[in-house]
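retry 2 of 3: previous attempt timed out while embedding manganese (II) ion. Reduced batch size to 1 and resubmitted. Inputs unchanged:
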Amino acid sequence: DRIARRRDREFSEFRKRIKDADQFKVEASVFDDATFAALYKLVQDGYIDAFGGPISTGKEANVYSALGGETAADVLDVDDNPEVAVKVYRINASDFRDMRGYLDGDPRFEGIGHDKKQIVQAWVRKEFANLTRARKAGVRVPEPMAVERNVLVMELLGLDTGRAKRLSEVHVENPETAYEVIREYMRRLYDAGLVHGDLSEYNVILHGEELVVIDLGQAVTVHHPNSREFLERDCHNVAAFFRRQGMDVTDEDLLAFVTDD
Ligand code: ATP
Ligand code: MN
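retry 2 succeeded.
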């Protein structure tokens, strides 16, 4: 019918517009039609108004900055349309076998099959759910806004122009304070039943004076058969970073603090 035809036309115009946009020149080939449809839905739903440039092109996902729409402003409770971060997982590039292992034993994602597309979509929903749970537990993470198929929209970090800096990229003025903040985040996350699983100076972002933990896609619940191993690895990475900052901290001290034993 007429409405469907109009919708189709609007969608192809949208797709062409994105494909032609400079920032998507390289990536357009890796975006499949379903990804364009997901981005289109997010525009229609008011989460995205206009796309900015790429912030990061990773192994499995690309992160873009974008201008958020009215719904994004509502979620963050701000007057002006905020900037948002759009993380797009590439279904074909994703190492879904590895992802599958992180979904095992998670009571929230029981019965996820072995279909690549389904695994990646469960992964994105898991990242959204983990961000929500972390926030509730009092851990500073980007505020999650929407998830649509293989696309996650969240609060954009970084207060000054340009890309937000990782902890690994800055001179840490006060390592004692930073360590206390991060170990408290780890404890709160653990008390909320989550283990980050890839925590290091590369997944902590500086947002003004705040330290913000990112990249919670692989975070598992404590039910996961390897959650203890992941927690020990997180403790090792974090303690090693602060030892390099001249601090006298051990992996074991940190683990004891986080698990309270
Ligand atoms: P990598 O393999 O590089 O770790 P990834 O797929 O694990 O990538 P993230 O770590 O979530 O993805 O994001 C990659 C990079 O994008 C981050 O290091 C950071 O620079 C930037 N980034 C991610 N989320 C945000 C955000 N909400 N606001 C600002 N920048 C972000
Ligand atoms: Mn990362």
